[in-house]
Amino acid sequence: MQSVAAQYGVLPAAQRELPWPEWSVLVAGLMDDTPLGRLAAARLQRDPAALRRMTPWQKRERARWRRFLAGRRLRRADETRREQRTMQTALARMFGQREGGKMQ
User: Fold this and answer.
1) Where are the domains of the chain?
2) DSSP characters for the chain?
3) In terms of pTM, does the model score above 0.70?
4) What digits encode the pLDDT tens for the residues 15-67?
5) At a CB cut-off of 8 Å and minimum separation 6, what does 21 contact?
6) Per-residue pLDDT at 6 exceeds 90
């Protein structure tokens, strides 16, 4: 990864096995002057004044990230609803209710 190499002078591919905790520390510490650091800064920016000063690239990348997060939230909500229906059905069967809510 170029950003890690640029900031730390370490090529991740040259490391035999870089444990996840060490990798995440390297990535978390990336400065804004690296490609990945710039991307992360654009995605995570919340300051209204800074948002107004963003370049078209930063705005586009931030919008892409927010769309991704929104889609993930929707998928999780769908999964939760399916799990709730499954649990309701299982509990209804266990305690003698039919799907319509009436006792057997």
Assistant:
1) 2-78
2) -HHHHHHHS--GGGSS---HHHHHHHHHT--TTSHHHHHHHHHH---HHHHHT--HHHHHHHHHHHHHHHHHHHHHHHHHHHHHHHHHHHHHHHTTB-TTS-B-
3) no
4) 677 787 887 787 777 788 888 888 888 988 899 999 999 999 999 999 999 99
5) none
6) no
